[in-house]
Structures are given as structure tokens and as C-alpha cells.
Write a structure and sequence with these properties.
Number of strands of chain B: 4
Shape of chain A: globular
Radius of gyration of chain A: 23 Å
Low-confidence stretches of chain B: none
Low-confidence stretches of chain A: 453-458
Number of strands of chain A: 0
Helix content of chain A: 55-70%
Oligomer: heterodimer
Order of helices and strands of chain B: EHEHHHHEHEHHHHHH
Shape of chain B: elongated
Largest sheet of chain B: 4 strands, antiparallel
Number of helices of chain A: 15
Structural class of chain B: alpha+beta
Strand content of chain A: under 5%
Radius of gyration of chain B: 47 Å
């Protein structure tokens, strides 16, 4: 196939006018939800209720309802936490890093990916809090002056996590909201219903699309992107410190921060593709979220998948090269021990299946793409499972080795976190513009002046 | 207030980005200062056309970012190195590398929040939903896909007719005169509003009381200080005698409590000899134990004058001839085995402590029944000769 790579492809396919773009994006909010919406909502709501029930059981009877026990004290809760935080990373990568790299194609998917970041971090945040056993005492994690005269331990990776994840959630939310302000104003001026108008006016803060405001706005957006970029890298680095700062073989490795960040982006992009494929179909956004977008994301999945594969190989190499018998035992145990099944699920899903994305046809085929990205989601969940469980189940003391088995309650809570995530996503698609209206207008054909010279900035 | 509406400004709407750039240049070149351009998205080159200076927002970010770093480092320095230093993992009290992650996070957090806060509140002066431009046809069109310019009445060069003529020369698709909205005033202290405030106060305080005092202590919110266990001295319905505290099961041997072979015998004293000399330390131990276990009934000086004030039968004094003639072994036997109403103390007091108590009882008996010869001895020791 002949493609002209000397010219950038149009971001919005089909030469839509600005009014048509707005119409397309605003349609889900202007119309009453149809049957499909309620079916989807009831499925995700059911999952959410299953999770809520299992959580209520855990709170009532205590954490003994889970499979966690010595020596595997960090089981499902931490696996799920790392999994969901990782999912969130794609959103910030798309909205901040691709913005700084001036990738115009990000516009169509940025809003959605940012929303997914926030929802994924909300899902992630539940797990460490319930893992403490007494989640109503979570306030103790904050350094506040108290009658005991005690402070939190600022040198602990677990406390770094508290700060990193809460900062990440806050900054992602602010970034997302700042992007939404002009869209709220547009929705306000579109709507004729009084209730909708009041809600949109409140959230638009009275935005007037004034160019004197746009100047500062673009500056602020650039600054926020500049902060979000190192922030997203720091968050998964700190999450990996939870493991790497300990002395457990298989965890105590300097490769962990980059390995975790690459894995996070890998799983996050897979999740974004999974959800976007449905969203573009259901809301007729094929012109705005084009097959080119999906192809580009698949390329990133291929690249990060190979980084993750490299990390797997390097872990084995270092285990042998370091000459440390404990370290080499752990890795041989991972691949051929009692959890070999999990290890090989991980390797095949994360390293082997994404290799199909070398073929352009497969990158652009929606059914095959769906299968592969779902495999990647599964594989990345198993990566965290393998790291957490294999190292803990067989550490230095053979007398305390044990085989960890999750319980039904564990599985129910994991299912519930998916329910929460998809419920939030479904409600979001109906309540807010899933594509940034002002940004997508700005990159449409003919949206910018044709003059040359003058000030150019983005 | 006069009935005449006050003009906010005059707007002109255009169809293409090229036209609005051109219009903005002309308005700016004509010498107007108080004018604005409204576009559905930022149009490239507009800042140059309007002669807007670059945004100064970055300074807020810089200052607040550095403050965030400083606050984080100071907080960690003060808490970990000054207020409550603890050695953790052999790290120094000021473990800078371990402080970096939180310093970074707080820098980002404070910089981001203050940049956005300053932008919205100080630079934009938002929220402002009462602005004259809201709810005009002009706003609706620039919110969608048109581009507009507004010259405000505040400008010194503003004159309704000349501005309108000037804007018409730019070939707009429409022009509009925008007036200030008629300001409606609401009296604040209406009875209805006050009732509303009172209702909110009742709901909020009631809700807070309920959630803090009732909700947080029902299951599953268990707190460490409230546990399903029996505290010392507390009653329990589980046992027939209604007491929470139990005596050990028959035959229980606690650590340090070897079973007493003379249990129930009347006088095994010939085989029981005091293994301890009445040294200062031993008597001090005996005194401490005597005060813990014996004084409630026997009184502080073994007079049998019970501190329980008649709630329990008073024992006889230990200064009687009979008691003074008891051998050490006999006193030990009574403590261990019990006598009459007195229960056995074998499970509470260790063997060594029982012997120490015996020594202390001897001290009390001696002190209460001192002879003149003792006084002479004492004075000799004190270096005085009063009695001579």
C-alpha cells in the first residue's frame, strides 16, 4: 500500500465542518440514552454490585475472607492496585507527553484517555486502603499533628505511594477539568433546557472564549503538561519502589522503575484501545477517532510490549550473571515452579501476542486488535500477580513456603473494580463530551488562518 | 437608577479565521485598547494581531513550585530530624535521598493547583456567570463555529455610532450592541432564607453527631480500644459465678510456680527453712509485695486493721505472742496454703517473693515489739547516748 509519509494525515477524517464536529461530539449529551446504553450500564452495574457485596463481606467479617496469609500477605489487593495504577498511565501519556511532543492525533483520544486515568486511579486507590484492614483509619496516613506526637514515616515507600497516587489523582483531575472548561461553555450555549444550562454554566465558570483568556489558558495547559509528564513517570517508579526497596529476591532490582513504567504504558494503551473501539462505534465517532488513531496506539503497544519483554529477559540474565544463588532460584522457580502457569500466561500475552502488530493489516483490523489487546490486559494483570506472589510464596526460609490461592471474595472484589471502572466510563460518555470539542475544532481542516508569518504557537 | 440601558460594547461576528485575524489587526491598529476577540478555540497568531503580551502565569508556577519543595523538605526535616527522630533502616535522621519522592510530589501538587487557581481566579476573574456577553446571540455563535470581536464601552475612543460604522467596514456577518443586564437585587435576610439556614444547621449538626458518635462505632467499624474481650475485674455472663476473671484450672503450673508439696497440711514447718537472709534488698522486695497483697486485710503495719474498712472480716494482729512465735516456715505455709478465711496466694506471689514477705513481717514484728535493749543498740548505731 502506498502512503505518503511526507505529509501529516488530517486529524479529522472526512472534512467535517466545525458545526458538524460539535454536533457529533455533543450528540450523546443532547439525546436520551438508548437501550444499548442501559444494557451496558446494567452489566457493569451488576459487576459493581458483586464487588460491593464482596467488599461488604470483607469489611464485616474481616480480611480473613481473602486468600492473603503468611507468607503471601501482599496478594490480590496489591496486584490489583498496581494493575489499575498502570492502566491510568496511558491517559496521562496521551494527554501530556504526546501534547509536549506536538502529536496532533492525540486530540481525538486525549479527553477519553484522561477520564480513564481518573477512573483507573479511583479503582486503584480502593485496594491499598482496604488492604490495611481498617479502611476507616486511612486518615492516619496523612502527616497531621496528633496527640501521640507521632508522624508518618517519610522514608517508607508505602508513604511515598500515598503522596504519589493522591497527587497523581489530583493533578489528573485538575488537568482534565481545565480541558473541560471551554467545552462546558460550548455545551452551555448549545443547550436550551434550563437545568442543563444551569449545570453547564456552573461548571464552565462563565468562560467566554475570550482570546485574552486563551493566551493564559494555553500557557497553563503547557505548564500542566510539563508537570504531568514527570509526574506520570514518578508515580509508577514509586509504585515499583514498594517492591524494589525491600530485600526480597525477585523484587530487589534496579530495573524495576523503568520496567514498571513501560509495563504501565503498555497495559494502559491496551485498555484505551479496548474501550475506544466500542466508544467510536456506539457514538459514531469513526471520523474523529479514526482507524489511524488505533493503528498508532497499536504501534505503541508493540514498542512497549517489547520493552517489557526485554525486562523479562534482563531479569533472568542478571539472576544468572550476578551469581547470586537466591536470585537465580527465584527466577527458575518463577518459570518452572508452582506458578509456572501464571508466568507463561504472562509471557505469551505480553511478549508473543503483540508481535502480530508488526503487520499493518492486523494493526488496522478491529476484531484481531480486540483479541490482542484483551490478551495484553490479561497478561499485564498476571505480570503483577507473578511478581507479587512468586517472590512471597517462596522466599529465604523454605520452612515457610506456601502456595497462595485466592478466594471467591478476592475474585469478586477484582470483578467489582472492573464494574466500577466501566460504570464510570459509561456514565462519562453520556454526561460529558468524550472528545475535547475546542481542541478538535482547532486541528480540523481550515480551522487555522492561512496567513504565513506572525506568531505561531500551540 | 435610570431606565436607560447601559452599553457594554459592540460586537461583530466573522465567518473564517483569516477574517478575524484581519479584523483584530485593524481594531488594534485603530487605537482601541479595551477590545476582545472571542473564538471557539485558540486561533494561531491572534496574540500578535491583538498585541497581547506573553502570559506571566509561569511566574506563579515557579514561585509556588519552589515553595512546595521547600515546605516538603522543611516538614520532613522538622518531623523526622527534630520533633520525633527515629532510626529507620539505619538511615540518618535527615535522609535526603529518601525525602526526594515526597518533595517532588508536593512540588508538582502545589505548582499545579496554584497555577490553575491563579489562572481562574486572578487572571480570568472567573467564575463570572453574570457577564454582559452571556446569553447573547454573539456568545452563542462564537461558542460554536464563528469568530467575533467586541469593542467595549470602557474604551476612551468609544462612541456608539463611530464604532458601529467602523465595525461595518470590516464586512462582518452580523453586529450586535450588548447592554449590561439589569441587576436584580435579592434581600438576604428574609425569614424564608433564615429558616433555610437554620434547617441546614440542624441537618448538618445532627448528621455530624450521628456519623461521629453512632455510625463510626457500629460493625464493621471496630476500633482497637473496643474489642470483644473481658477486661480485668469486669463481669461476664458466660460463667456461672458471673465473674470475667477465672482462677487457673486445677493442676495448672505457671512459670516460676512449682506445686506446693505441703498443701492442706497444718504444720509442715520443720522442713521449711527460710532460704533468704534479711538483706536490705530482700526486705525492700518483701515490703513492696506486702503492700500489694497483704495490707488490704492485715493493715500497713500488720495490726489487723484492714484498709477495707469492714468489707471483709478483719484478720487478727500479727503482733500477738502466737504469731511472733511462728517459725518462718509457718508464715510461709500460711501464705501459700491459706488459713481460715484467708485464701491461698500461691498463684499470685512467687516463692521467692513469699519468703521476702516473711522477712518483712519479721521486721514489722520486731519494730512493733521493740525492747529497751533495742533502743540502746539503735542509739549506739546512730552515735547518740540519749537513753544512757
Amino acid at each position: 500500500m502506498n502512503i505518503d509519509y511526507s505529509q501529516e494525515m488530517p486529524t479529522v477524517a472526512g472534512r467535517l465542518t466545525l458545526a458538524q464536529i460539535e454536533e457529533l461530539v455533543a450528540k450523546p449529551m443532547d439525546t436520551k440514552p438508548d437501550k444499548k446504553f442501559y444494557i451496558a450500564l446494567s452489566i457493569s452495574g451488576t459487576l459493581l454490585m458483586i464487588g460491593a457485596t464482596m467488599l461488604a463481606i470483607s469489611l464485616y467479617y474481616g480480611t480473613g475472607m481473602w486468600g492473603n496469609n503468611q507468607p503471601v500477605g501482599w496478594a490480590f489487593p496489591i496486584v490489583n492496585f498496581v494493575f489499575w495504577v498502570g492502566i491510568g498511565h496511558a491517559g496521562t501519556l496521551i494527554s501530556a507527553i504526546l501534547f509536549l511532543l506536538r502529536q496532533k492525533w492525540r486530540t481525538g483520544i486525549a479527553r477519553f484517555a484522561e477520564a480513564m486515568t481518573i477512573f483507573a486511579v479511583i479503582c486503584a486507590g480502593i485496594f491499598p486502603v482496604i488492604h490495611t484492614g481498617r479502611p476507616w483509619l486511612a486518615g492516619y496516613l496523612l502527616p497531621y499533628p496528633n496527640q501521640h506526637g507521632l508522624w508518618v514515616n517519610f522514608t517508607s515507600p508505602l508513604l511515598w505511594d500515598v503522596f504519589a497516587v493522591s497527587t497523581y489523582l489530583t493533578v489528573s483531575f485538575v488537568f482534565w477539568y481545565v480541558g473541560l472548561i471551554p467545552d462546558f461553555a460550548t455545551m452551555r450555549d448549545r443547550s436550551s433546557s434550563k437545568i442543563k444550562k444551569t449545570i453547564y454554566s456552573t461548571f464552565s465558570l462563565g468562560w467566554r472564549h475570550s482570546n485574552r483568556h486563551w493566551t493564559h489558558y494555553e500557557k497553563a495547559y503547557m505548564l500542566l503538561a510539563g508537570f504531568a509528564t514527570p509526574l506520570v513517570l514518578s508515580v509508577h517508579t514509586i509504585v515499583s519502589f514498594d517492591f524494589a526497596v525491600s530485600i526480597l529476591p525477585g523484587w530487589h532490582a534496579t530495573i524495576f522503575p523503568p520496567y514498571f513504567v513501560a509495563g504501565a504504558i503498555f497495559s494502559g494503551f491496551a485498555m484505551v484501545v479496548t474501550v475506544l473501539v466500542f466508544v467510536r462505534k456506539i457514538f459514531d465517532l469513526q471520523h474523529i477517532i479514526t482507524i489511524d488513531h488505533l493503528e498508532k496506539m497499536n504501534k505503541i503497544i508493540l514498542a512497549t510490549g517489547m520493552m517489557v519483554g526485554y525486562a523479562y529477559a534482563m531479569e533472568f540474565f542478571i539472576a544468572w550473571y550476578s551469581g547470586n544463588p537466591v536470585e537465580s532460584f527465584v527466577f527458575i522457580n518463577r518459570a518452572f515452579g508452582p506458578y509456572a502457569w501464571a508466568y507463561w500466561i504472562m509471557v505469551s500475552c505480553n511478549v508473543i501476542f503483540p508481535q502480530f502488530f508488526w503487520f499493518r493489516k492486523i494493526r488496522r483490523s478491529i476484531p484481531i486488535m480486540m483479541v490482542i489487546v484483551i490478551f495484553v490486559n490479561v497478561g499485564m494483570w498476571f505480570e503483577r500477580f507473578v511478581i507479587t506472589v512468586t517472590s512471597l510464596s517462596r522466599d529465604f526460609l523454605p520452612s515457610s513456603w506456601a502456595y497462595y490461592k485466592p478466594t471467591l471474595v478476592d475474585g469478586g472484589i477484582l470483578l467489582g473494580s472492573f464494574g466500577l471502572f466501566f460504570t464510570l466510563v459509561i456514565l462519562f460518555t453520556k454526561a460529558l463530551p468524550v472528545v475535547s470539542i475546542s481542541e478538535i475544532k482547532a486541528v480540523a481542516d481550515g480551522a487555522q488562518p492561512t496567513h504565513h508569518g506572525g506568531e505561531h504557537h500551540e | 437608577m435610570n431606565n436607560e440601558k447601559k452599553i457594554y460594547g459592540i460586537t461583530a461576528t466573522f465567518k473564517t479565521p483569516d477574517e478575524i485575524i484581519n479584523a483584530a489587526k485593524k481594531v488594534s491598529n485603530a487605537g482601541y485598547i479595551h477590545f476582545d476577540v472571542n473564538t471557539p478555540y485558540p486561533v494561531h497568531g491572534m496574540d500578535g494581531a491583538m498585541k497581547i503580551k506573553p502570559s506571566k502565569l509561569g511566574f506563579v508556577t515557579l514561585v509556588m513550585g519552589l515553595s512546595g519543595a521547600a515546605i516538603a523538605l522543611l516538614l520532613m526535616f522538622w518531623t523526622m530530624s527534630v520533633d520525633y527522630p527515629i532510626v529507620i533502616g539505619g538511615k540518618p535522621f535527615f535522609a535526603l535521598p529518601a525525602f526526594i519522592p515526597i518533595t517532588f510530589e508536593l512540588t508538582v501538587l502545589l505548582a499545579t493547583l496554584s497555577t490553575v487557581g491563579a489562572m481562574i481566579a486572578l487572571f480570568f476573574r472567573l467564575p463570572d456567570n453574570q457577564h454582559p456577553l452571556h446569553d447573547t446571540e454573539y456568545m452563542k455563535s462564537v461558542s460554536a463555529d464563528k469568530y467575533g470581536v467586541v469593542i467595549e464601552a470602557e474604551d476612551v475612543k468609544f462612541d456608539e455610532k463611530s464604532v458601529l460604522d467602523f465595525l461595518k467596514t470590516l464586512n462582518p456577518i452580523s453586529t450586535e450592541i450588548v447592554f449590561y443586564p439589569v441587576v436584580e437585587e435579592y434581600p438576604i435576610f428574609q425569614p424564608k432564607f433564615i429558616m433555610f439556614l437554620i434547617a441546614i444547621a440542624i441537618v448538618v449538626s445532627g448528621g455530624t453527631y450521628f456519623s461521629l458518635n453512632k455510625l463510626t462505632i457500629i460493625t464493621p467499624f471496630n476500633w482497637m480500644m473496643e474489642q470483644d474481650r473481658v477486661n480485668a475485674q469486669s463481669p461476664s455472663e458466660l460463667f456461672a459465678d458471673g465473674r470475667g476473671m477465672r482462677t487457673p484450672v486445677e493442676g495448672t503450673v505457671a512459670k516460676g510456680f512449682i506445686p506446693y508439696p505441703y498443701k492442706g497440711q497444718t504444720n509442715p514447718t520443720e522442713v521449711l527453712a527460710n532460704p533468704f537472709l534479711p538483706t536490705k534488698e530482700n526486705i525492700a522486695l518483701g515490703k513492696a509485695k506486702y503492700f500489694t497483697y497483704c495490707t488490704p486485710c492485715h493493715g500497713d503495719f500488720a495490726d489487723g486493721d484492714s484498709r477495707l474498712r469492714g468489707q471483709f472480716p478483719n484478720p487478727p494482729t500479727l503482733h500477738s505472742k502466737r504469731a511472733r512465735d511462728f517459725s518462718d516456715g509457718m508464715i510461709y505455709h500460711i501464705i501459700t496454703n491459706g488459713q481460715n478465711v484467708m485464701p491461698s496466694y500461691a498463684s499470685q506471689i512467687t516463692r521467692d517473693e513469699r519468703w521476702a514477705i516473711v522477712n518483712y513481717v519479721r521486721v514489722l514484728q520486731r519494730a512493733k515489739n521493740a525492747s529497751d535493749a533495742d533502743l540502746i543498740d539503735m542509739n549506739k548505731e546512730a552515735g547518740s547516748n540519749v537513753a544512757n
